[in-house]
Amino acid sequence: MSRYWSSVVHRLTPYVPGEQPQLLDLIKLNTNENPYGPSPKVLEILRREAADTLRLYPDPNAERLKEAIAAHHGLKPSEIFVGNGSDEILAHTYQALLRHPKPLLFPDITYSFYPVYCRLYEVDYEQVPLTESLQIRVEDYKRANGGILFPNPNAPTGRLLPLAAVEALLRSNQDSVVVIDEAYVDFGGESAVPLISRFANLLVIHTFSKSRSLAGLRVGFAVGDAQLIEALERVKNSFNSYPLDRFAIAGAVAAIEDHAYFEETRQKIMRTRTILAKRLEELGFEVLPSVANFVFVRHPRRDAAELSSQLRERSIIVRHFALPRIEQFLRITVGTDAQCDALVAALQRILQ
Ligand SMILES: *Cc1c(COP(=O)(O)O)cnc(C)c1O
Fold this sequence. Notes:
- The chain contains 11 helices and 12 strands.
- By secondary structure, it is α/β, with parallel strands linked by helices.
- The strands form 3 sheets. It has a 7-stranded mixed beta sheet, sandwiched between helices.
- The radius of gyration is 20 Å and the shape is globular.
- The structure holds pyridoxal-5'-phosphate.
């Protein structure tokens, strides 16, 4: 603390990201990165991008990337916003579309960055409790609000809200913006992107960090009605003209164009998830049904924090949240088959 700090800084409670260990021999199942590397075509483009042209600023509007994303989703570039990771897009969304007198609504158990942005942007919020089985119930969102925000599938539960329920929520909430954070939708979810043509208040946010194996490149995008996108552009152009560097633009274009690699890796992860869930159940864990690249599990007789540190002693890191209602759960990223074998073997020894 310092007397030089602004009053906003005094009020902040910064987000604490999952550990990024410097030791590379750890089995890292704690931050939902993709266990498979980026497409070889992305790596080739990035090598080519390391050239004299780096002395020039990148395209401030990343037009090539917007066009590639628009083509992929059958939309217009004016319906696409791109940013330095979806976290940055979320931040601009708060500033552009969610800062209203009425409270922002989001689930009580969800991505823990959401309340952090509320403090940064001084947005009043209400946390809507998930049901007993940790599901979103859309009727609970029928109340005065200045916006609604949730991930689908939700994090860290991995549970999906079916598209019909999303549509019902949109129909009963036309006066404020509904933001759906689809960070994990490519692992078996149903995207709300096709609904943007019918709901001018829907913004859907995607990231290249999970299903495109590019967490290190920092690229995300939002899709929505051109007027919502314009609001985001106004904030972005009042903050940083060049959020995406030359590598990010070129790499993300190559990633979205390599459909075969994307299909192959996401299918592998979904297959491994099914096997992992079954083996964890055989070890006595309760496994929530997941359509994400992680599973959310608890053991009826073992303390989650203790299990997490016992795994850590065996060089395996998973995520434990010391938060109400979920302190007995572990969130485990779906790794390669070999990483999941190692996890199951370690748990077998720990539970013996
Ligand atoms: C990982 C994640 C993000 C952030 O993604 P980046 O694009 O890497 O910033 C956003 N929302 C949820 C729910 C996530 O899990």
